[in-house]
Amino acid sequence: MSAVIMLLFVVMFLTVSGRFLYIQGTGEVEGVFLQDWADKRRTNTYEIEAQRGTIYDRNGMVLAQDRATYRVQAILRDVYYASSESEDLELADPRDTADTLAPLIGMESNEVLERIEFGIENERFQVEFGKNGQALSQEMKEEIDAKNIPGIQLMKESKRFYPNGMFASHIIGFAQQKVIENEDGETKTFVEGITGIENQFNEQLVGKNGSISYQRDKYNVKLLDSKEMVQQAEDGKDIYLTIDQKIQTILEDSMTQVEDQYAPERMTAVVMDAKTGEVLAMSNRPSYNPNQIGEVANWYNDVISTPFEPGSTMKVFTLAAAIEEGVYDPNERYKSGSYKIDEITYPLHDWKTTWGEISYEEGIQRSSNVAVSKLVWEKMGTETFLDYLNAFDFDQESGIDLPGEQAGRILYDWPIEKLTTSYGQGTTTTPIQLVKAASAITNKGDMVQPFVVSKVVDSKTGKVIEEHSPEVVGNPISEQTSKKVLDTLETVITSENGTGHNVYNLSDYSVAGKTGTAQIPDTENLYPGSAYLKGDENYIFSFLGMAPKDDPQLIMYVSVKQPDLDLENYESGSAPVSFIFKNVMENSLHYLNIDPDKDSHEPIHTITAPKLVGGSVQDAKMQLEEKGIVVTVIGDGNEVVKTSVAEDQKILPNERVLIITDAPKMPDIIGWSLRDVLKLSDLLELDLEVIGSGFANAQSIDAGTEVMANDYLMAEFSSPNTSISSSVDEEIEDNKETDSTSVEDVP
């Protein structure tokens, strides 16, 4: 028996000794290296957050930037901050803390208490409170600070902020703060681009976090020889867009007015530099405010992501192909009304029963489906026309540097489809594809690549990392053809027969363009026996315009889907479209200092802002008012601290310029536009909440009150009771074109 016990003892001794020798030799226990484990246990590591890059417009106006927010921590053991001289670092009474903190961060008292007690039981130095304790505003921080809760601290972090609200939101997109919580209750936050430029250039914008690590003793006190290591954060790169804040603002305001009056199902608009392909403005409705993401009616950037049947705007490219092939004779006559070939069962029709025998030029002016169908079938041939569609890149995406682009489809299998494609039915496209193709018309035959990112810049050094330049991507037509197309499209506006006559003409500039009234497919079979919806409002009304005609500087496309028209007073669908086009195109050309080409009007020039910051308020005000600028001085100070315009920036006549003094006070903003209130908020660094749209009718900070950074301002807005249609020139009956064909024509 004693021998057995002795044997067992020897075996146990050898086993333990062997295990000890193994651990001593390898330094490893169950796959864990003891040295690494010890270093980790006695090393504190803190993350240094990288600043996400800022997004600017072409003139340096901030469109998206990081903004300070705060995260709540409950400190459970004061040794965690042993080197700090602050008092009340350690949490006192868990129940009192929970009762005081919970209502401030929108949690139940028991939820807060449960997290605190979990931390205490597990000997944590601190605990956090999940999403409710993240991304707190300056105002909420001040509320919590005012309670003086022992052990509660707020850590500063960044949140993405969009100073202009809904402005260009489908282009800029939005980035969202995400929170990862591990099984120990510790959280890590980061900002990730979800849509738009924020998503497309997330890798350049995001930067790289740094860290600080040092060794400590068991009481969490930093050792004398702490082996401190610092890895500096690398901030994200800045992105400069081609978008022009002023042109985009004019577009946004115009579309908002149309949205308020006509309540359309959808709207799209894009303005592009005709020479370079730089997109100066782009917007959709419905839109969204990236600062207040809730229920979003439309995530899609319809300008690039939603193909549709374009209607008669496609006739621009049918005309261009016919001219390039030498088969278009503007004076040749044909019989309008309907057109029948042996290969289709039923004839296709013009939108009007007939104009009798007319010239091909008049057919283009009147937007005759028969005219372009005959040009394709009888003059140039369907395969030749298809070659031109491909040359204009209608068979592929535009390649714009935005996420989510979808190309349209050339529907070209049956004879009827080859005819209807000539006037934009059946075949689908996107607004950006139309604008890209139109650049060949405006640019002497050279088709340019649309783009929205101008350059990527190092946020620290200002060095340009990546720069985008204009690029010619095709030559579908010649310079001579482009000129003839522009001359013909001008008559759509100037001729009494034109569908754009008295509707799309500008005061100071000549326009070449084409109207469109596209049918909408009846996907829900609301009208049995018809492939398309019926009714005067069930169309996509559009216009593709270029100005000035002889040397176009801008291309603009506008579409309005199913507007609520005043049919009792014979209001046409071109009323909301022309309001947007005329307002944006005319003002944009003036802003860009493009000389008017109509002799009947004096040119309107922009004003160049002088150097104002650092000078006296009185001198600055006098300099601007002498040039006809509306000036609003913010506060009673004598020195100019900030202004809403930078030195050498171009200012539109009657534009409001804000001068911030060294003693700022809240102005009376009643009657101000949302754009001006956003400028004010940005300059004063206010925490702005916007309710409604239009013009301000209420403000939460009384006029004359001293204001400081991060003060909360609530501003209510309402739309003026004005009629857009009253500002649109009277239209002749012939302007009510419709791009239609009979359902029986479809094989």
UniProtKB/TrEMBL annotation:
Enzyme class at the top of the EC tree: hydrolase
GO biological process: cell wall organization
Name of this chain's protein: serine-type D-Ala-D-Ala carboxypeptidase
A Pfam family recorded for this sequence: PBP_dimer
Assigned GO CC terms: plasma membrane
Pathway membership: Cell wall biogenesis; peptidoglycan biosynthesis
Record keywords: Membrane
